[in-house]
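Attaching the record inline, Q. Sequence:
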Amino acid sequence: MAGKRVFPRSLQYLLAIAEHGSFTRAAEALRVSQPSLSQQIKQLEESLQSPLFSRSGRTVRLTNAGEIYIRHARRARGELEAGRRAVHDVQNLSRGSLRLGWTPITDYLTCSLLEDFNSRYPGITLKTLEMPQGDLEVAVAEDSIDVGIAFGKPFSGESPSSEIQTDLLFEETLCLAVGNAHPRAGQQVRMSVQEFGRESLALLNTNFAMRHHIDQYCLEHRIAPNVAIESNSLNVIIEMIQFGPLATVVPKSIVRTQCGLYSINLSPEMPRKAIILFYRNVGYMSPAVLAFSRLASDWSVRRLTQTPIRKRRPCPLAEAP
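Structure, as predicted:
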């Protein structure tokens, strides 16, 4: 609300009319009278010596001059919002916010990083959003999120934009994961690709990067994955594997941190995949983003020497045969 009071009223009205395509609807949305709104626009047009809207009956559209001017108005609003955030994101990190986007996989792999950040900077509000990997790239580029954590290659092009900073956190090996009810639980022998092709699998759906890696592996080895269940929730998949006869494919570290899961290596192995942190390195960078990137770098080094065991759900006691 404070940001709206700082932004000039006439420009608020201009943007609202352009958005709603109507003086009446804009006035209703802003909860002001239509005469007051019209007067502000008239004064703005007089100061610019150019009409900004073409009015034909009930239809309202921007003139050429209006199209040009509104681009600058939107840019000004964005700059004011960045300034407001800069004031609140004080340098000592006693307050502020960090918007983080991640995938279902990076959620599991980097949750302890968020715990470390929250412990060190309790005044910073962490806002997390889980989304398909392809959406992370767009969200960072459009400044909808501050930081993205991707599984594997995060960018659709051959190389990221020069405006995007990428930091490698660590690499992961994918493996087959089964639960106590699976006949292969505890198997130490590597599984052949032909055997893998016969396993009934529960996998993330095709919106997610890890599914693309699995499908590519199968394509390269000329097998078709036997997908019994698809889901957009890794939590659901892991619960089904823990207590049922299906198998899945996940990074090895997830198996190590979840109760009731067993890993089986494939032959040949699936390629290792990188976990990458990325963020915009141009324009305003909040102290929270800078602090998070530094902490992530330190955390990734510590992770090489110690893997904390964290069981997210209680493991039921195994019944005696």
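Residues 307-321 have pLDDT under 50 and may be disordered. The longest helix spans residues 64-88.

More tomorrow.
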